[in-house]
Design goal:
CATH topology: OB fold (Dihydrolipoamide Acetyltransferase, E2P)
Number of helices: 2
Helix content: 10-25%
Strand content: 35-45%
CATH architecture: Beta Barrel
Radius of gyration: 15 Å
Structural class: alpha+beta
Shape: globular
CATH superfamily: Nucleic acid-binding proteins
Distance between the termini: 33 Å
CATH class: Mainly Beta
Number of domains: 1
Strand order of the largest sheet: 1-3-4-6-5
C-alpha cells in the first residue's frame, strides 16, 4: 500500500509541475568523481550563443562552482532555447564525459529513450524548454 501512495505522490508532483531542485554542489561532486551518466540539475551562465550542429544546438556554460560544460540540446526532441551569451539558465540532464576529459550535459529533453532514461529540460526566463 505504501508503494502505491509513493507512486500517487510522485504523479501528483509531476502533474503540479514539480521539478528537480538545483544541486550545484552535487554536480561539482559528480564532475570531481567523473560520474559519467549522473542525472544533474544546476545553475549556470551561458558562455556563447548556441550553434546548431545537425539536430542539436550546442553551447557552453559556466556553473556556479566553476566548471565549464558543453550543453548538447536535441532540437529534434525539444524546442530551441532562445538564449545568448551572459544569460542565466537552470539545466537538468545527464552528465557525460568524453576523452580529454571533456564534460558536458545532454538528455535535456522530455522525450526519453534507452540513452536518455530520465526526462530533462532547460529553464530560461521562467520558461521550460523540454
Amino acid at each position: 500500500m505504501r508503494g502505491l501512495a509513493a507512486i500517487a505522490f510522485a504523479l501528483l508532483l509531476i502533474a503540479c509541475g514539480g521539478r528537480e531542485t538545483t544541486d550545484d554542489q552535487g554536480l561539482h561532486q559528480d564532475v570531481q568523481n567523473s560520474t559519467n551518466g549522473a542525472e544533474v540539475t544546476f545553475d549556470a551562465t551561458v558562455l556563447n550563443d548556441p550553434v546548431q550542429s545537425g539536430d542539436h544546438e550546442r553551447f557552453e556554460v559556466k556553473t556556479t562552482t566553476g566548471e565549464t560544460l558543453e550543453i548538447d540540446h536535441n532540437t529534434n526532441l525539444a524546442q530551441a532555447v532562445p538564449i545568448h551569451k551572459g544569460d542565466g539558465v537552470v539545466i537538468h540532464g545527464q552528465l557525460y564525459i568524453d576523452p580529454g576529459p571533456h564534460y558536458g550535459v545532454h538528455c535535456t529533453h522530455a522525450h526519453t529513450s534507452s540513452g536518455c532514461p530520465s526526462p530533462g529540460w532547460i529553464e530560461y526566463n521562467n520558461n521550460y524548454y523540454e
